[in-house]
Amino acid sequence: MTDTAPLPASPLGLPDTALVVVNLGTPDAATPAAVRRYLAEFLHDHRVVDMTRWLWCPLLHFVILPLRSRPVAHKYASIWIDGADGGSPLAVHTRRLARALQAELPGLRVVDAMRYGQPSLADTLERLRSDGIRRFVVLPLYPQYSTSTTASVADVVDRFRAGAPGCELRMLEDYHLDPGWVGAVADAIGSHREREGAGDHLLMSFHGLPQRFVDRGDPYQAQCEASAAAVAAALGLPPDAWSLSYQSRFGREQWLSPSTEDTLRALAARGVTRVDVVAPGFAVDCIETLEEIAMMLAEGFAAQGGQLRYIPCLNADARHARALASLLRASFPDAVA
Ligand SMILES: C=CC1=C(C)c2cc3[nH]c(cc4nc(cc5[nH]c(cc1n2)c(C)c5CCC(=O)O)C(CCC(=O)O)=C4C)c(C)c3C=C
Ligand SMILES: [Fe+2]
Ligand SMILES: [Fe+2]
């Protein structure tokens, strides 16, 4: 983050400040070739996989990409959104959320960008600069900070800043306890419970992370725990009515526990039949929520005699856009009016 003197307003009255809403990224087609391109970029990031390249590159190029691209493309195909404004759910919902934020913040130019794939964050920052933007607010759509996600966005922002003298860049690091965001998540769960009746248990499932990252100081797990406790408190849930788990394990090393799959199995074994599952670490729905939770884990839980009811992410809901707009106004009062 930099703090330079306030910039003058654009002489043409056009917005001189851009809000760049950044998400992880996703393939641009549900094909093995597009998935391979996306995974290759993502899994080459040292923030995501820090193994020495002598070991990792052969494993990635000769084992993981050839074996993973086709089955993962099938998964994307099962959740792909059709139509002119369609695509991978992560891209579609991020784009729609950026539009909803534009309506909330008419004084800024709001654009969406991706850390991996298109529209690329690095290219987006350059394009905005060539359009005359000199002040940038970057909002990574990760409520909880992790070096594997937020810090990787910061790497791109830092590289751009180094080559863009005269530009002012600020970035929000996390919003895991922001009252507006906690309230929006609790409201979404509350609306689901009003519509469908409350389940017997609420499971809050977060994306996992190698345990090693947390052991060396990544605050992600502590922030997930704090977010989940705040959402449960906003709903007035007693401790035995909810739990927290981690999904989307990748590779063989130890990841955060308990896993969502094991937690569902334990709930089924205890005779808990109707479980509501929400994913508060994901700002918008994506392969990890729609395919992994709402399809695969729901099928597995049904086979154990239970019913898993997935509560969608906040996506482009007005309450999500309102919460994020208020958070940005409070965090950057001189840039976001
Ligand atoms: C070592 C591998 C991975 C780490 C570390 C990791 C951390 C991490 N990821 C998210 C959010 C998302 N991940 C998504 C997909 C995804 N994640 C990994 C691997 C790691 N993630 C892979 C290989 C994939 C692609 C799908 C697959 O091949 O199984 C997504 C969804 C993308 C989409 O297109 O829908 C999100 C979002 C967080 C928050 C996080 C650390 C906290
Ligand atoms: Fe490589
Ligand atoms: Fe991931």
At CATH's second level, what is the architecture of the domain at 179-311? 3-Layer(aba) Sandwich
Largest sheet: 4 strands, parallel
Q: Report the count of strand segments.
A: 8
CATH third-tier fold name of the domain at 179-311: Rossmann fold
Amino- and carboxy-terminal Cα gap? 19 Å
Q: Layout of helices and strands, plus pairs?
A:
Elements: E1 17-23, H1 32-43, H2 53-79, H3 89-104, E2 109-114, H4 121-130, E3 135-140, H5 150-162, E4 168-171, H6 179-196, E5 201-207, H7 211-215, H8 220-235, E6 242-247, H9 260-269, E7 274-278, H10 287-303, E8 307-311, H11 318-331
Parallel strand pairs: 1-2, 1-3, 3-4, 5-6, 5-7, 7-8
Report on the architecture of this protein:
The structure is a single chain. By secondary structure, the protein is α/β, with parallel strands linked by helices. 47% of the residues lie in helices and 14% in strands. Helix 4 runs parallel beside helix 5 and helix 6 packs antiparallel against helix 11. The chain is globular and about 60 Å long. The N terminus is likely disordered. The structure holds the ligand C=CC1=C(C)c2cc3[nH]c(cc4nc(cc5[nH]c(cc1n2)c(C)c5CCC(=O)O)C(CCC(=O)O)=C4C)c(C)c3C=C and fe (ii) ion (2 copies). The site of one fe (ii) ion (FE2) has 2 residues, from loops. One fe (ii) ion binds next to helix 2. It comes from Marilutibacter spongiae. It is an enzyme of class 4 (lyase). InterPro entries: Ferrochelatase, Ferrochelatase_AS, Ferrochelatase_C, Ferrochelatase_N.
